[in-house]
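Exercise 7. Given the encoded structure of a 163-residue chain, write a plausible sequence.
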Protein backbone atom coordinates (compact mmCIF):
# COMPACT_ATOMS: atom_id res chain seq x y z
CA UNK A 1 0.00 0.00 0.00
CA UNK A 2 1.32 3.44 -0.94
CA UNK A 3 1.71 5.93 1.89
CA UNK A 4 -0.08 9.25 1.73
CA UNK A 5 2.31 12.07 0.83
CA UNK A 6 2.11 15.43 2.59
CA UNK A 7 3.84 18.50 1.18
CA UNK A 8 5.38 20.64 3.90
CA UNK A 9 6.39 24.28 3.88
CA UNK A 10 9.32 25.82 5.73
CA UNK A 11 7.37 26.81 8.88
CA UNK A 12 6.53 23.20 9.70
CA UNK A 13 10.18 22.13 9.70
CA UNK A 14 11.23 25.08 11.84
CA UNK A 15 8.38 24.63 14.33
CA UNK A 16 9.07 20.92 14.79
CA UNK A 17 12.79 21.45 15.14
CA UNK A 18 12.04 24.09 17.79
CA UNK A 19 9.78 21.56 19.52
CA UNK A 20 12.54 18.92 19.44
CA UNK A 21 10.09 16.70 17.54
CA UNK A 22 11.66 16.80 14.09
CA UNK A 23 12.75 13.16 14.11
CA UNK A 24 9.33 12.08 15.40
CA UNK A 25 7.69 13.39 12.20
CA UNK A 26 9.46 10.67 10.25
CA UNK A 27 7.92 7.98 12.48
CA UNK A 28 4.41 8.87 11.32
CA UNK A 29 2.82 6.46 8.82
CA UNK A 30 2.99 8.84 5.89
CA UNK A 31 5.58 10.33 3.58
CA UNK A 32 6.81 13.90 4.01
CA UNK A 33 7.79 15.95 1.01
CA UNK A 34 8.99 19.47 0.32
CA UNK A 35 10.24 21.39 -2.66
CA UNK A 36 13.84 22.25 -3.41
CA UNK A 37 12.91 25.87 -2.60
CA UNK A 38 11.89 24.88 0.93
CA UNK A 39 15.04 22.84 1.44
CA UNK A 40 17.17 25.81 0.39
CA UNK A 41 15.41 27.98 3.02
CA UNK A 42 16.33 25.52 5.75
CA UNK A 43 19.86 26.86 5.89
CA UNK A 44 20.63 25.75 9.44
CA UNK A 45 19.30 22.22 8.90
CA UNK A 46 21.29 19.26 7.63
CA UNK A 47 19.57 18.51 4.29
CA UNK A 48 21.29 15.12 3.97
CA UNK A 49 20.03 14.07 7.39
CA UNK A 50 16.48 15.03 6.40
CA UNK A 51 16.75 13.04 3.18
CA UNK A 52 18.22 10.07 5.02
CA UNK A 53 15.27 10.15 7.42
CA UNK A 54 12.98 9.86 4.40
CA UNK A 55 12.17 13.39 3.26
CA UNK A 56 11.26 13.49 -0.41
CA UNK A 57 12.51 16.64 -2.11
CA UNK A 58 10.73 17.60 -5.31
CA UNK A 59 12.56 19.85 -7.72
CA UNK A 60 10.50 22.11 -9.96
CA UNK A 61 11.32 22.40 -13.64
CA UNK A 62 11.69 25.71 -15.49
CA UNK A 63 8.05 25.84 -16.53
CA UNK A 64 6.83 25.31 -12.97
CA UNK A 65 9.37 27.75 -11.57
CA UNK A 66 8.19 30.42 -14.02
CA UNK A 67 4.63 29.92 -12.75
CA UNK A 68 5.75 30.63 -9.18
CA UNK A 69 6.27 34.32 -9.81
CA UNK A 70 2.73 34.69 -11.09
CA UNK A 71 1.42 32.79 -8.07
CA UNK A 72 3.38 35.04 -5.72
CA UNK A 73 1.61 38.05 -7.20
CA UNK A 74 -1.81 36.41 -7.44
CA UNK A 75 -1.67 35.12 -3.86
CA UNK A 76 -0.01 38.23 -2.44
CA UNK A 77 2.68 35.97 -0.99
CA UNK A 78 6.32 36.96 -1.16
CA UNK A 79 7.79 33.56 -0.37
CA UNK A 80 8.94 31.50 -3.31
CA UNK A 81 9.13 28.45 -1.03
CA UNK A 82 5.51 28.86 0.12
CA UNK A 83 4.06 29.15 -3.35
CA UNK A 84 6.24 26.26 -4.55
CA UNK A 85 4.52 24.04 -1.98
CA UNK A 86 1.12 25.34 -3.01
CA UNK A 87 1.89 24.62 -6.68
CA UNK A 88 3.16 21.11 -5.94
CA UNK A 89 0.08 20.34 -3.83
CA UNK A 90 -2.16 21.70 -6.57
CA UNK A 91 -0.43 19.67 -9.29
CA UNK A 92 -0.23 16.40 -7.34
CA UNK A 93 -3.40 16.54 -5.25
CA UNK A 94 -1.37 15.81 -2.10
CA UNK A 95 -2.35 17.61 1.10
CA UNK A 96 -0.40 20.69 2.11
CA UNK A 97 1.19 21.16 5.54
CA UNK A 98 1.67 24.83 6.30
CA UNK A 99 1.86 27.30 9.12
CA UNK A 100 1.44 30.31 6.84
CA UNK A 101 -1.99 31.90 7.22
CA UNK A 102 -2.16 33.44 3.74
CA UNK A 103 -1.06 30.22 2.09
CA UNK A 104 -3.57 28.19 4.10
CA UNK A 105 -6.41 30.55 3.23
CA UNK A 106 -5.59 30.46 -0.48
CA UNK A 107 -5.20 26.68 -0.52
CA UNK A 108 -8.53 26.13 1.24
CA UNK A 109 -10.20 28.62 -1.11
CA UNK A 110 -8.83 26.63 -4.06
CA UNK A 111 -10.05 23.31 -2.67
CA UNK A 112 -6.76 21.88 -1.47
CA UNK A 113 -6.57 19.78 1.67
CA UNK A 114 -4.54 21.70 4.27
CA UNK A 115 -3.21 20.87 7.73
CA UNK A 116 -0.83 22.61 10.11
CA UNK A 117 1.43 22.09 13.08
CA UNK A 118 -1.42 21.37 15.50
CA UNK A 119 -2.76 18.62 13.25
CA UNK A 120 0.72 17.12 13.05
CA UNK A 121 1.02 17.20 16.84
CA UNK A 122 -2.37 15.48 17.04
CA UNK A 123 -1.07 12.79 14.67
CA UNK A 124 2.05 12.25 16.78
CA UNK A 125 -0.18 11.63 19.80
CA UNK A 126 -2.82 9.57 17.93
CA UNK A 127 -0.21 7.24 16.42
CA UNK A 128 1.58 7.07 19.78
CA UNK A 129 4.78 8.34 18.22
CA UNK A 130 5.11 10.68 21.18
CA UNK A 131 3.39 11.01 24.52
CA UNK A 132 0.78 13.63 25.29
CA UNK A 133 3.22 15.19 27.74
CA UNK A 134 5.97 15.41 25.07
CA UNK A 135 3.47 16.93 22.62
CA UNK A 136 2.53 19.57 25.23
CA UNK A 137 6.20 20.39 25.86
CA UNK A 138 6.76 20.60 22.10
CA UNK A 139 3.80 22.91 21.61
CA UNK A 140 5.03 25.15 24.44
CA UNK A 141 8.45 25.32 22.80
CA UNK A 142 6.92 26.21 19.45
CA UNK A 143 4.93 29.02 21.05
CA UNK A 144 7.86 30.25 23.14
CA UNK A 145 9.98 30.46 19.98
CA UNK A 146 7.44 32.49 18.02
CA UNK A 147 5.15 30.03 16.25
CA UNK A 148 1.92 31.74 15.25
CA UNK A 149 -0.76 29.21 16.08
CA UNK A 150 -4.42 29.69 17.05
CA UNK A 151 -4.34 30.53 20.80
CA UNK A 152 -7.68 28.90 21.68
CA UNK A 153 -6.77 25.63 19.97
CA UNK A 154 -3.31 25.64 21.56
CA UNK A 155 -4.73 26.18 25.05
CA UNK A 156 -7.27 23.38 24.56
CA UNK A 157 -4.52 20.94 23.56
CA UNK A 158 -2.25 22.01 26.39
CA UNK A 159 -5.06 21.45 28.93
CA UNK A 160 -5.88 18.08 27.39
CA UNK A 161 -2.31 16.83 27.03
CA UNK A 162 -1.14 17.96 30.47
CA UNK A 163 -3.77 15.98 32.35
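Solution.
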Amino acid sequence: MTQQVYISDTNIWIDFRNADLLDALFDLPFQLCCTDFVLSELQDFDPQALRQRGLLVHGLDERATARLFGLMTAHNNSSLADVSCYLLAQETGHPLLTGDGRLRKQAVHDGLQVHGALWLLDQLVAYQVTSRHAAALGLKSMLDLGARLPPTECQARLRDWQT
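Remark. Residues 11 and 71 are 19 Å apart (CA to CA). Students should compare their own answers with the one above.
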